[in-house]
User: Which sequence fits this backbone?
């Protein structure tokens, strides 16, 4: 019963995310209406969350993760992050904060690690190299992820996303030839890493207990 209801909720969320993507039609990008890949991903997320977490954390995780999946889809195909999805993520995080699902200290320090520090680094890189390694959309996404994950999980997310993106860049370079100006969208790696780090903290709480600021 619980699995069935959570699956339905996930499929419905995935369908809603797809409709939003197609409505926004950023750079003309739309998800094929016949494809159920996004719905199935969100369905899996919701089933896992409801069966692995308490109801408050499950709803927050499922909601934010579904938004992250949508952001990843769009950024992968357009190099843009839908601001509407960022706002939706911020609203979920604020509701979780008011409901005391997310501690205030974790919320504030997470934002510092996820948005403030990358913004400072991005500004420094721009002044030195005149190149922008991350976009402002990535900073906005880092704000949401940091507020949700907290400082240490956010730091691990940034590290993991950087390693994944570098690995992918090297792989693409081997296949298509090296180009120092080749850019890859960063949001899909941030989204996947954030979800993965959160799930890891559930299965290995003993390790993450030493890292996560409560």
Assistant:
């Amino acid at each position: 019963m619980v699995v069935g209801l959570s699956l339905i909720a996930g499929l419905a969320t995935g369908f809603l995310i797809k409709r939003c993507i197609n409505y926004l039609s950023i750079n003309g990008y739309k998800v094929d209406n016949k494809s159920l890949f996004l719905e199935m991903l969100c369905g899996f997320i919701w089933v896992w969350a409801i069966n692995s977490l308490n109801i408050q954390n499950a709803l927050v995780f499922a909601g934010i993760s579904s938004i992250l999946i949508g952001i990843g889809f769009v950024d992968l195909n357009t190099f843009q992050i839908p601001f509407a999805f960022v706002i939706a993520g911020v609203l979920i995080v604020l509701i979780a904060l008011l409901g005391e699902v997310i501690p205030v200290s974790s919320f504030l320090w997470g934002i510092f690690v996820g948005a403030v520090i990358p913004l400072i680094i991005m500004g420094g890189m721009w002044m030195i190299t005149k190149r922008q390694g991350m976009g402002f959309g990535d900073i906005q996404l880092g704000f949401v992820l940091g507020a949700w994950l907290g400082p240490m999980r956010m730091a691990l997310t940034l590290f993991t996303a950087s390693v994944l993106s570098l690995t992918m860049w090297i792989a693409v370079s081997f296949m298509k030839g090296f180009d120092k100006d080749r850019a890859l969208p960063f949001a899909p790696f941030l989204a996947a890493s954030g979800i993965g780090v959160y799930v890891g903290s559930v299965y290995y709480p003993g390790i993450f207990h030493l890292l996560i600021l409560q």
Observations:
- The radius of gyration is 17 Å.
- DSSP finds nine helices and no strands in the chain.
- The longest helix spans residues 104-129.
- The chain has one domain: 55-209.
